[in-house]
Amino acid sequence: MIKFVANEFIFSARNGQIYMEMTFTNRAMQPMSDFAIQFNKNSFGLTAGQPLQVQSPLLPNQSYEAALLLNPTGPVQKMDPINNIQVNANSVVFFCVSVVLHSSFIRFFCCDCRSQ
User: Fold this and answer.
1) What CA–CA distance (Å, rounded) separates 20 from 18?
2) 20 to 30 Å CA-CA from 14: which of 1, 28, 71, 91?
């Protein structure tokens, strides 16, 4: 059983790019390593733009803040509600986060609102 907790998720736009900012906290009794993240299909086609960089090993009761660059080039599938994104972390933990819509509407990103 995996015992880490990603405490916080914040979506932001900086310098024309979308980021997912996260805080990872190791609640296990042993160090953890080999962090990874994968995004399922979503309404905005958001996917990781780089590998997740988390200090390794993450020692017990230690926290680490990471900012993951996102690209709007992934597979698109309409979600309900539209701003939900399903995420898989370390191939074990699945969770759902809501994108703050204003972080997605930056100058290079256009949402195609035509019905499918």
Assistant:
1) 7
2) 91
